[in-house]
């Protein structure tokens, strides 16, 4: 579960997301006080530090040992140095120390591009089923994946010889209204979801040539009052974060559409450890004449 330093650095330098996480932990310290917390991935290490500061009695970290070493260094001279403990090894081989069998809370910066690409989705579900107490908390837990039609120069795809990449999409490129593809709640979703098929229905906002679609998500968590609280979005009209939108180009020629025309389609999201970036996408779109 090691991430490249570039990803870690991008996470840590993202002021918007860091502030959102920090504010949530400060406003909901009672959720973490005297709790045992497991950080799945320890990608930037920020969630581990915030859990320690919020009063967790113990914080274990699995995954990125580079970030874990940095956290230990930050805490080593403080009174909470012993609260944080990295656990080395693959998640399927890790054993909780001191005879512990369960944790109260799982935290993870699990989201990837288009939610699932390069994500820790499967690892969080594994940790949940193995270690999380009944009715335990996962942070963040709820995500909504959306799709919108776009108009971009298809020559970019030809030059790169790919039909998918991550980028910041200009709002002016949006051709349709958004459509909810998948809603995920890590607290309740089952782990037998290797293949998700979503039926798409969108209405065009303008006439032109639609060359593909853009995927993006928003992320939420349940606060101390049990309310679902939106944390941030990576939509084209939202402030930029370290997470880009994901562009999927149509395999064939651009689709010529008219304003207010209905578009239908299907998006398959296939998860697998052997797939590129851990996920495969299959997209089909057609217009109603």
UniProtKB/TrEMBL annotation:
Annotated Gene Ontology cellular component terms: nucleus
Keyword DNA repair: no
Limits of the Protein arginine N-methyltransferase domain: 164-267
Pfam family membership, one: PRMT_C
SUPFAM superfamilies named in the record: S-adenosyl-L-methionine-dependent methyltransferases
Keywords, alphabetical: Methyltransferase, S-adenosyl-L-methionine, Transferase
GO biological process: methylation
Molecular function GO labels: histone methyltransferase activity; protein-arginine omega-N asymmetric methyltransferase activity; protein-arginine omega-N monomethyltransferase activity
InterPro entries hit by this protein: Arg_MeTrfase (IPR025799), PRMT_dom (IPR055135), SAM-dependent_MTases_sf (IPR029063)
Protein name as annotated: Protein arginine N-methyltransferase domain-containing protein
């Amino acid at each position: 579960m090691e991430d490249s330093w570039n990803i870690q650095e991008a996470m840590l330098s993202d002021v918007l997301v860091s502030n959102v996480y920090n504010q949530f932990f400060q406003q909901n310290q009672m959720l973490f006080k005297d709790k045992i917390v497991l950080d799945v991935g320890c990608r930037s290490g920020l969630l581990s530090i915030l859990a320690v500061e919020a009063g967790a009695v113990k914080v274990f970290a699995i995954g990125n040992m580079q970030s874990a070493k940095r956290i230990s260094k930050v805490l080593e001279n403080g009174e909470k140095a012993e609260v944080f403990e990295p656990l080395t090894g693959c998640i399927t081989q890790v054993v909780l120390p001191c005879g512990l069998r369960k944790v109260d809370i799982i935290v993870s910066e699990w989201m990837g591009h288009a939610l699932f690409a390069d994500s820790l989705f499967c690892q969080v579900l594994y940790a949940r089923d193995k270690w999380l107490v009944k009715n335990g908390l996962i942070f963040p837990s709820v995500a909504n994946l959306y799709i919108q039609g776009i108009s971009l120069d298809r020559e970019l795809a030809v030059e790169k010889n790919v039909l998918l990449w991550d980028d910041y999409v200009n709002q002016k490129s949006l051709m349709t209204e958004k459509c909810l593809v998948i809603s995920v709640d890590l607290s309740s979703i089952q782990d037998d979801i290797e293949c998700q098929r979503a039926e798409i229905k969108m209405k065009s906002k303008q006439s032109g040539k639609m060359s593909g679609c853009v995927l993006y998500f928003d992320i939420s968590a349940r606060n101390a009052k049990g309310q679902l609280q939106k944390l941030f979005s990576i939509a084209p009209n939202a402030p930029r974060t370290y997470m880009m939108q994901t562009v999927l180009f149509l395999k064939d020629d651009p689709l010529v559409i008219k304003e207010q025309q209905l578009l239908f389609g299907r998006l398959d999201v296939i998860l697998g450890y052997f797939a590129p970036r851990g996920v495969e996408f299959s997209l089909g779109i057609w217009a109603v004449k």
